[in-house]
Design brief:
heterodimer; A: mainly alpha; two-stranded antiparallel ribbon; B: alpha/beta; Rossmann fold; 2 domains; 7-stranded mixed sheet; 12 helices; 15 strands; 18% strand; elongated
Chain lengths: 292, 387
């Protein structure tokens, strides 16, 4: 029981980290960035290349890969979203162009790393087991949960306390009002993409290391979970994504253990369905007021 | 990255056509004496071998070629019937396999065919041989159905998973004395599901109590929930039916969850890639195999010596290929030295308790292989036979 809870928290921390970035872009732009999973995947490959080919320590490779993820996000925004901004149908066209970018990113990964599963070298991370009560967790798992929580806390603080955070929130409320108040809207949006993709990239690196298998399609399964998490948490709500990420991880683990792996997604999406009936805007979704 | 480069197909065609020309100019068609069947006596039997020398199964094909070449030499040196080999590349594909079979049957007029490497190719190419009444001896096809049931000219010397697992589990139980098991299998893949069905029956036959059964899907990366549930029931062994990629992740995660006991795997584990990816976690994993590398039988020692001479690392695939040639030689002997297609097919039916590197070899009623399987266990990063 305790062990399964740990398994759930571990899985949930990766879902939450992925979904926080996903929901940040949605909160700012009201656009689903379907290339988020491809950034997740590419960052994992960047970390893999840095560790396996450039023989860097994981502690050097992780921040570099996270920054690379952020930069890919900026590129993504520049190519797939900015040219469409201001068009009446930018919600749908942005969705489609991000889907196209996801395909492009996957093709790039396919070209460089092949369709097979790639792995970190055996000794990338020390294989140490930590006992917590009667449950066990590897050092890696504990660190992953720790890194995920720290990154999510940093993002929350950044949005709440810094000038950049205030600018991003202002753009989320109303780009026009923000511009009138002197905010550089394009820059704020680019920074939101940088933060979002850096977190998505961090989730990818941690996922790749935790399960030690990375392939060009590795993000697809997580994307669907991430979507469920941000809907469950309330579109655009960062604390909601965190809570929903951990909840989904724990629900999945207990479903697999108690009912069977075939029912994992059935139960997850049934929960999503029921929550949406009770709270149509998700757990912590804001009221429609700011649409005005 | 595994996909063959774009230029490989034209190159292959070029090579194939060059090879055909060579064949025509060098040796006169062996069937020149009488009609469409191969000549009996005189020049000996022409044996066609369709092997995957390129494509996905290329690593197996290379081993098979080494085994076949060594066996033909050994048979000739031992005073057996003279065998003339024609080896062609089936490129690990059905299409190329069919082309090669047509060439063997119509142009080379072979007496018998060895191969093709993959069950998938065999299911497409073997019907041609059945129709032309040319005996085929599969040397690595392990799919339970769809091979030898094509017809009475199709044989194989490779055990199916359904034959290996029960024997392997029995040996493992003698060694480990386990009474209960936790089972994990992939329920979205034909091979792993079929493997699970065989395992479940084998465990029931041995009187092993299955404490829990869990499933996963091929794209899954996280097996912690399933493994925690299984390990919590405290079984004596973990039994896993999975493809190599999933298998290495499952074994790694099981060790991380504190499982130190033995793990019994299906055929998916039977791959050096599994050991490489699972690393130290693979130690103690047991898998059934059809070739006992440590067998002191004279036939096996002779095979090992031949492989050493050829500078090839022997494995199950080269052993089965080597055995295939021995079986064909025996079949010719059984039919009184006649090498017609009909004669060899009749001779194959008479092969019984033949001494081979795989052990004493016979065919079942259904033309499948019959011999004792072995169990190997991973120790210090290598498969080692459990005596």
């Amino acid at each position: 029981m305790g062990q399964q809870l740990l398994n759930g928290i571990f899985l949930g921390s990766i879902y939450a980290l992925f979904a926080v970035g996903y929901t940040l872009v949605f909160g700012v732009l009201d656009i689903l960035n379907l290339a988020h999973q491809a950034v997740f995947m590419l960052a994992a490959f960047v970390a893999l290349a840095l560790v396996a080919d450039a023989h860097l320590s994981f502690w050097v490779a992780l921040p570099l890969a996270v920054v690379a993820g952020g930069l890919i996000g900026v590129l993504l925004e520049r190519i797939a979203f900015r040219p469409l901004r201001g068009r009446a149908d930018s919600n749908i066209s942005g969705l489609i162009s991000s889907l196209a970018m996801a395909t492009v990113f996957e093709a790039i990964a396919l070209q460089f790393f092949g369709p097979d599963i790639s792995r970190f070298p055996q000794d990338t991370f020390p294989d140490r087991v930590i006992r917590i009560g009667d449950a066990t967790a590897s050092l890696l798992q504990v660190l992953i949960v720790g890194i995920a929580v720290v990154l999510m806390a940093v993002l929350t603080l950044l949005l709440a306390r810094t000038r950049l955070g205030r600018q991003i929130r202002a753009v989320a409320e109303s780009p026009r009002a923000a511009r009138i108040l002197g905010v550089n809207v394009d820059r704020a949006i680019a920074m939101a993409f940088f933060l979002s993709s850096a977190l998505g990239g961090a989730a990818g690196v941690l996922f790749g290391l935790a399960f030690n298998s990375i392939s060009p399609d590795v993000g697809r399964g997580v994307e669907l979970k991430g979507l469920a998490v941000i809907i469950l948490g309330g579109m655009g709500s960062i604390p909601g994504a965190v809570i929903a990420g951990f909840a989904l991880g724990i629900i999945e683990v207990f479903t697999v253990a108690q009912i069977g792996s075939s029912f994992r997604d059935v139960v997850s999406f049934a929960v999503l369905f029921l929550v949406l009936i009770a709270r149509p805007r998700g757990l912590l979704g804001r009221a429609a007021a700011r649409e005005a | 990255m595994t996909a063959a480069p774009r230029w490989s197909l034209p190159l292959l065609l070029l090579l194939a056509s060059a090879a055909c020309k060579d064949q025509g100019s060098q040796a006169p068609a062996p069937g020149s004496g009488g009609g469409s069947t191969a000549a009996s006596g005189g020049g000996g039997a022409v044996i066609g071998a369709a092997l995957s020398l390129t494509g996905a199964a290329a690593s197996y094909g290379a081993q098979q070629r080494a085994g076949i070449n060594a066996a033909v030499e050994d048979v000739a040196a031992g005073g057996g019937p003279k065998l003339t080999l024609v080896i062609e590349d089936d490129a690990s594909t059905k299409e190329q396999g069919i082309t090669v079979f047509q060439k063997f049957i119509n142009r080379d007029k072979v007496s018998a065919i060895l191969g093709p490497t993959l069950s998938n190719t065999a299911s497409a190419a073997d019907p041609l041989a059945q129709q032309a009444q040319v005996p085929v001896l599969g040397i690595s096809n392990t799919a339970a159905t769809g091979i030898t049931d094509i017809g009475n000219y199709i044989w194989r010397d490779s055990l199916t998973e359904a034959q290996v697992i029960p024997g392997a589990f029995k040996k493992a139980q003698e060694k480990l004395k386990f009474k209960s098991a936790g089972v994990l299998y992939g329920n979205d893949d034909v091979f792993t599901k079929a493997g699970y069905d065989v395992m479940q029956k084998a465990l029931a036959d041995l009187g092993v109590k299955v404490l829990g059964t869990q499933t996963f899907a091929k794209p899954d990366r996280d097996y912690n929930a399933q493994l925690t549930a299984l390990i919590g029931q405290k079984p004596d062994v973990l039994v896993v039916s999975a493809l190599a990629d999933n298998a290495s992740a499952i074994v790694s995660q099981a060790r991380q969850r504190g499982w130190t006991g033995p793990i019994l795997g299906g055929n998916g584990f039977n791959s050096p890639a599994f050991i490489k990816n699972a690393g130290a976690a693979a130690d103690g994993v047991m898998v059934g195999t059809s070739w006992n590398s440590l067998s002191q039988d004279a036939a096996n020692q002779k095979f090992l010596a031949a492989m050493k001479k050829a500078g090839v690392n022997p494995d199950q695939f080269s052993a089965q290929a080597y055995t295939g040639v021995l079986i064909l030689a025996e079949a010719i002997k059984q039919s009184g030295g006649k090498t017609g297609r009909e004669d060899i097919n009749a001779g194959l039916a008479k092969v019984k308790d033949l001494e081979t590197p795989l052990g004493k070899f016979s065919f079942t009623q259904g033309r499948d292989a019959q011999h004792e399987p072995s169990v190997q266990q991973v120790k210090d990063g290598k498969f080692q036979i459990v005596q």
